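User: What would this chain look like folded?
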Amino acid sequence: MSTLAAAPLVDSFGRVHNNLRISITDRCNVRCFYCMPEKGVEFMPRSEILTFEEIERFVRVAVTLGVNKIRITGGEPLVRKDLPVLLRKLIDIPGVNDIALTTNGVLLPKLAGPLYDAGLRRLNIHLDTLDRDRFFHITRRDDLGKVLDGIALARRLGFGPIKLNAVAVKNLVEEDIVPIARFCRENRIEPRFIEFMPLDAQQLWNKSKVLTADEIIETLSREVAPLVPVADPDPRAPATEYVYTDGGGTVGFISSVSKPFCMNCNRLRITSDGKLRYCLFAIEETDVRGILRSGTDEELARTIRETVSKKWIGHEINSSRFVAPPRPMYAIGG
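Assistant: Here's the prediction, encoded as structure tokens.
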């Protein structure tokens, strides 16, 4: 292992990878229209899903290759039984400096306490609207109250930073942008507006449905307070951050469509069924579940390194060459 771990995870374009996103389930307790169909969703058999022990082993090997940031995703990760047990295992791995979790927040009222006790502090909560009717229209579930209760509880417990993710779909969320921004200012939460990406299971996406970051910045600067770019931003961060000139906080924008940030990407992903991906939009993926179940750590490390070395220059969403990945977002991991 020592020779395999001697060098960082670098692809052919010189990008160093230290950020791992782990999907722990493809199941979800809501049905956002831009992600999953209302009915007929076929989830992976549980026998194909990585166990906590397999996930822990993968992370331990990845850490020897320079990975030090972990994000837990799904599907909806809070539906995975005993999630706090996994979080404690990962937090205790030497070399893991940062761990975060992305959730829709529906189960936070029940699980925020156990998650906090396990050592988790960073949360990204998905919420597109504060309007109950539109929440139901988007998610096909009447769970807005649970999400808001979960956010309030997370704040009381001391989670931080808490970020709120909102998908920006044109002709749908325009009237929600300002209320969400004001809600976040009042509660010391950073909103992150994410451009609608071609990762939905029903192939509803087209570029005309993307509400761009520039359009949102213009709206917030006019209706809430002027926004200016953060000085000395982290070029590796997926979100471009702006600050209100009146000191009212920070707003993040993930502009994967209008302003791709591929050349700064430092992330790799593993799906809940053990497929390693060098890009959210990748067409190909590498099976590591078999190695985790019958191979050696050396073989696993070599496979991780080889996968990163093959990473493409970028997804080319704005090109005629773009091909959407064969898996939807919930099966890849957010």
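The chain has ten helices and 14 strands. If you want, I can go into more detail on any region.
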